[in-house]
Write the structure tokens for this entry.
Amino acid sequence: MFLRNAWYVAAWDREITRALKSLTILDERIVFYRTTTGQVVALEDACPHRKLPLSMGRLQDDRLECGYHGLTFDATGACVRIPCSDYIPKGARVHSYPVVSRYGLVWIWMGQPELADPAKIVEVAHWGEPGWGTNSGDAMTVDAHYLLVTDNLLDPSHVAWVHRGSFGDAACESEPVTVEATGHSIIASRWMRGVEVAPFYAPFVKFQGPCDRRQYYEVRFPSHAIIRAIIVPAGSAGPDAEAHPQVFVMDSYNFMTPVDADQTRYYWFQIRNFAPEDTRVSEQMTDSVRSIFDEDRVILKAVHQGFKHKRTPNIDIAIDSAPLRFRRRLNQLIAAEQAAQARDPAHAASPATT
Ligand SMILES: [Fe+2]
């Protein structure tokens, strides 16, 4: 089950070119291309005639020609040509998805097009601000249901076991996590006081000795995580920590896009409050994060299989509070969306009915 009236990341902006690109998002096949004026187009990837993927056709200027019988579609999804026929039937169109390029990513709206408001795209704090550096980030395919990924990203404790030696250490095992809900997200956070600087952060932190470390894990509905790390000299924890002259801040943005019920595309990058122009720092950070996220990828694939093949029911424990609240609220949002569509099927979000 997916929330349809939401923005998801479809691709890195640089991945959409004049070559047709077929992607599956929320179990829907979508063809992407860039027009001659640079606009990104996203259309249902199935000709309404015999359902051949339009991605097997070709671009004729900014129009897409089916590779079976030459039916041709414009960027709005309307059929503008049927060879050997003067008549274009009313149903000769494909769904056109609203898309927006922002933060180097292509965002796609999977629900009712008239509800697609770009202001609802996650805001990346400090983007392009002087003094803040951004790494190029990457994407990975996780063979797991996307809610297993959001579980992981609302669980600061897992770093003690999955990422011991990078993000985590023994101090991460015991400090309790505070959970709160906002109108659009669930937040799991904690301060760890008087701890060693964990190995991932050590090369970048400007002070010696023990630190106070904040783990702030926020996941916004449907599946966008903002993971903020704040590290200050021991004794400096608190609401004013970010004003400390030696503060280390790293915001990790993690955007999960369900491919289907068994696979997730995971786009990520980090913003930091130091070395804004230092490409060596950016590369080091990207490489380290990539290998750390690979540790999650292995675990989540195995967990997905574990759930698929479970013999006895799974249990939940105290640290599951934030993931469970997130799932409950998201399920409510999905149920409300589906109820609204059932009342007004003319506006159902599925491209089959638009
Ligand atoms: Fe992790």
